[in-house]
Design goal:
With 445 residues, this protein is an alpha+beta fold. The protein is 33% helix and 26% strand. It folds into three domains: 98 residues, 3-Layer(aba) Sandwich (Rossmann fold); 70 residues, ATP-grasp fold, A domain (Dna Ligase, domain 1); 237 residues, D-amino Acid Aminotransferase, Chain A, domain 1 (2-Layer Sandwich). The strands form five sheets. It has an eight-stranded antiparallel beta sheet with strand order 13-12-9-10-11-14-19-17, with helices on both faces. The chain binds adenosine-5'-diphosphate.
Length: 445
């Protein structure tokens, strides 16, 4: 097993990885920007290295600085966390070339799934169905119009290298399609340095359902049931739950098996998530994330398995001791993403946390790097806490979550706690009757 791991990330996810390492007897090295000198992941790590100024491109995205930190600290492996360099195949390659273990999949698998067009083709060949759309990139307005006419409007234009909802826009009619195409190309070029786009049918009432897997790199792939992440705003997840309120056991098992068989064929290594849109009883693949997922805790709560520990064990070359029959899903878990934004206008609200009291008690987990006196910097993602609750049934889970949200005090900055409190009173949510468009319809924007 590794003796020392460098965590190339910040905030709650860096802390999450630190915790798994410490429980495995592994020393941790935190890297941080000058804006994060007082961050909790830096305070708790065994060693720390400052890697640059606040902008991500100069610090958390600066592979050279991270590799220098790895050299200085003498680590065995690097965990990339979520976001930043976690899905950057060139970084994974550099890590390996410098003699460290990359805690994640092979660079080839990251590259394959990072190109959403190639990923869709590969997944189709592996036997799963995809959202109807263009075969490959769309090169001209004429070609785009022809495809859109075939599949029917509205259509969604998506960036091949897209992520985080960027480079993605709906075209309701053929008149607006050229404008939407050029908007997406520009946004994709600015964000990802790649302006290739493709077209998909824009589904009217799907749920976002994703399957968590772990592969050993030798063809064995375990599935951990699904997460329902349909409560979204601007294509970004707000609440996630496991299991989905709309899948029965037979459907859950069937999709889990199909996914693990497909991913097993490419000898996938490490943690991964296969995302689907689920509409009228059909699963349509949209993308695979070749990393840990923000919402992984809900799967951990219902399976009782620490996914980060398993990631680290696999990367260290230890055999995957778990069998599919060991993965017994129990009860229900819901995660609320608490972000430092105004709960109604969603205006960013960085600043100093003047009071902090996290909820606790039976079945309550808080993954957050906040503390009283901490200044939330304006430079990074606004996620400041994940409140995760587990209970025997969905009804109990909702009651517990309401109780936990009522206890949660984050003073000095605006957060979306009031939004979550409101959503947990909505009859549609209580009935599990929602799709990916529900929240925006409810908010009116
Ligand atoms: P990103 O990688 O940018 O997050 P995804 O392909 O994962 O993009 O899609 C993010 C979200 O966008 C989905 O969860 C869903 O809400 C919405 N979405 C994606 N594809 C479609 C589609 N074809 N029809 C309707 N909504 C879609």
């Amino acid at each position: 097993m590794f003796e020392k791991v460098l965590i190339a990330n910040r905030g709650e996810i860096a802390l999450r990885i630190h915790r798994a390492c410490r429980e495995m007897g592994i020393q941790t090295v935190a890297v941080h920007s000058t804006a994060d000198s007082d961050a909790m992941h830096v305070r708790l790590a065994n060693e720390t290295v400052c890697i640059g100024p606040p902008p991500s491109k100069d610090s958390y995205l600066n592979s050279q600085a991270i590799l220098s930190a790895a050299r200085i600290a003498g680590v065995d492996a690097i965990h990339p966390g979520v976001g930043f360099l976690s899905e950057n195949a060139a970084f994974a390659e550099m890590v390996e070339e410098h003699g460290y273990v990359f805690i994640g999949p092979t660079p080839d698998h990251i590259r394959l799934m990072g190109d959403k067009i190639a990923a869709k083709e590969a997944i189709q060949e592996l036997g799963l169905s995809v959202v109807p759309g263009s075969d490959g990139p769309v090169d001209s307005d004429e070609q785009a119009k022809r495809i859109a006419d075939e599949i029917g409007y509205p259509v969604l234009v998506k960036a091949a290298s897209g992520g985080g909802g960027k480079g993605m826009k709906v075209a309701e009619t053929s008149d607006v399609l050229p404008g939407v195409l050029s908007h997406c190309r520009n946004e994709a070029m600015a964000s990802f340095g790649d302006d290739s786009v493709y077209i998909e049918k824009y589904l009217g009432h799907p749920r976002h359902i994703e399957v968590q897997i772990l592969g050993d790199g030798g063809g064995k792939v375990l599935y951990f049931g699904e997460r329902d992440c349909s409560i979204q705003r601007r294509h970004q997840k707000v609440i996630e739950e496991a299991p989905s309120p709309v899948l029965d056991i037979a459907t859950r098992t069937a999709i889990g098996k199909r996914v693990s068989e497909a991913v097993g064929k490419i000898n996938y290594r490490g943690a991964g998530t296969i995302e689907f849109l689920y509409e009228d009883g059909d699963f349509h693949f949209i993308e695979m994330n070749t990393r840990l997922q923000v919402e992984h805790p809900v799967s951990e709560m219902i399976s009782g398995i620490d996914l980060v520990r398993e990631q680290i064990r696999i990367a260290a070359g230890e055999p995957l001791l778990l069998e599919q029959s060991d993965i017994v899903l129990k009860g229900h878990a819901i995660e609320c993403r608490v972000v430092a934004e105004h709960p109604e206008t969603f205006a960013p609200s960085p600043g100093t946390v003047t009071d902090y009291h996290a909820p606790g008690g039976f079945g309550v987990r808080v993954d957050s790097a906040l503390y009283s006196g901490y200044a939330v910097p304006p430079h990074y993602d606004s996620l400041v806490s994940k409140l995760i609750v587990h209970a025997d049934s969905r009804e109990e889970c909702v009651m517990r979550l309401r109780r936990a949200l009522d206890e949660y005090v984050i003073g000095g900055i605006e957060t979306t706690i009031p939004l979550h409190q409101r959503l947990l009173m909505e009859q549609d949510f209580l009935n599990g009757d929602y799709d990916i468009h529900w929240l925006e319809a409810k908010l009116g924007f």
